[in-house]
Amino acid sequence: MNNAIKGAAAGAAVNAVNGTRSRYHKKHRNLGQDVGVGGATSTVTGAVTRGRKDTLGDAVDGAVAGAVIHLLTNGKN
User: Fold this and answer.
1) What is the pLDDT, as a whole number, of residue 60?
2) 77 pLDDT band (50/70/90 cuts)?
């Protein structure tokens, strides 16, 4: 359940950040940005839901979610 919450939060944040970009940059997403936003969001979500029990693990989970979203959506807008 916690991984689903972290993944959903990371996905929403990655897509929200990319939604603020120009049409060209929406189509040519930045992998580093997607990974960073996913990792940061998942870390914060994990801290809120579990009280910082595994901060590094939360960051890695979110970074992977950001990378997956990048791979699935890059160039498709």
Assistant:
1) 92
2) low
